[in-house]
């Protein structure tokens, strides 16, 4: 461990810097709100501590000695660094980071960003997305919203939304499929998919058909995309039938861009609000956590049950 620093009082160094910069004790005193004798007294104290003269006293001011000039360069640079760091700290914006996946960020969180920002004015909200499963050790987020079973070690997880999945397509394809279609009927149309994962992270078309006790193969040309936003866009353009996760597809159902074209399937998985279990949230983070839970509750209140598909 380093020893104790051998330094004179900071105020003495501030007075020395001002006197050296002005070349005049009176001008230094005017800047610092001190009298000329008070400045002279502090300079004398510093010279006694160093056992060396720092100024040559002249009739119309003072001039640094060689020892004084060397000390001034160091003191001036150090006080500048301290001042700049204080300014950076004073005006540094608070930051709140939320980690999630691209689908949730795009379709649920982004439309609510203005309301979130109004909740914590002056705080920079950073949203980071990843296609991978949540990893507590790799994340430096204050809060995270991820899809899974809610069992991430080292975290507290509260479910926002259960995994609630419905087939969706655009209006043109829905007319072709027909009203009140059976699960079997969808095998005749292109199925829009995400890549398979091991282990399977979310409901697949195979899972959906298995839930309805259907083992057949799709007769349409299925298409696989590496991002859920592409799956949804393909469905909007009528390229096939997609699995729609609530609440992600709810805005498209409300606008009529997508229609439900098959029965719902629910699982025990879902989107969870995650925070570190061993680290208490700040007041501002707790405020956001409560807001997210409240937003999810209002969503359930306003959107349950699902409308009948026809």
UniProtKB/TrEMBL annotation:
Gene3D superfamilies: Periplasmic binding protein-like II, Winged helix-like DNA-binding domain superfamily/Winged helix DNA-binding domain. PROSITE patterns: HTH_LYSR. This is LysR family transcriptional regulator. GO terms for biological process: DNA-templated transcription. Residues 8-65 form the HTH lysR-type domain. One of its GO terms (molecular function) is DNA-binding transcription factor activity. PANTHER family: GLYCINE CLEAVAGE SYSTEM TRANSCRIPTIONAL ACTIVATOR, HTH-TYPE TRANSCRIPTIONAL REGULATOR. Keywords: DNA-binding, Transcription, Transcription regulation. Pfam families: HTH_1 (PF00126), LysR_substrate (PF03466). Belongs to the LysR transcriptional regulatory family.
């Amino acid at each position: 461990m380093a020893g104790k620093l051998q330094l004179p009082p900071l105020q003495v160094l501030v007075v020395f810097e001002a006197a050296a910069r002005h070349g005049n004790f009176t001008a230094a005193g005017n800047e610092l709100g001190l009298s000329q004798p008070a400045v002279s007294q502090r300079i004398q104290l510093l010279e006694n501590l160093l056992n060396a003269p720092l100024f040559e006293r002249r009739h119309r001011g003072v001039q640094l000695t060689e020892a004084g000039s060397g000390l001034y360069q160091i003191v001036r640079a150090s006080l500048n660094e301290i001042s700049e760091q204080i300014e950076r700290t004073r005006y540094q914006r608070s930051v709140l980071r939320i980690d999630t996946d691209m689908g949730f960020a795009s379709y649920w969180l982004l439309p609510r960003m203005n309301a979130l920002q109004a909740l914590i004015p002056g705080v920079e909200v950073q949203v980071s997305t990843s296609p991978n499963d949540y990893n507590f050790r790799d994340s430096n987020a204050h809060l995270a919203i991820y899809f899974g079973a809610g069992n991430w070690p080292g975290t507290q997880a509260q479910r926002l939304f259960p995994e609630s999945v419905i087939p969706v397509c655009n209006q043109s394809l829905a007319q072709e499929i027909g009203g009140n279609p059976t699960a079997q009927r969808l095998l005749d149309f292109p199925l829009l998919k995400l890549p398979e994962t091991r282990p399977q992270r979310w409901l697949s078309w195979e899972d959906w058909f298995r839930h309805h006790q259907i083992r057949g193969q799709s007769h349409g040309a299925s298409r696989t995309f590496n991002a859920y936003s592409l799956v949804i866009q393909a469905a909007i353009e009528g390229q096939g039938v997609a699995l729609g996760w609530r609440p992600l597809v709810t805005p498209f159902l409300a606008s009529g861009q997508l229609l439900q074209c098959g029965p719902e399937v629910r699982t025990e998985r879902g989107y969870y609000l995650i925070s570190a279990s061993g680290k208490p949230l700040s007041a501002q983070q707790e405020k956001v956590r409560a807001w997210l839970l409240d937003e999810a509750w209002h969503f359930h209140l306003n959107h349950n049950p699902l409308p009948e598909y026809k």
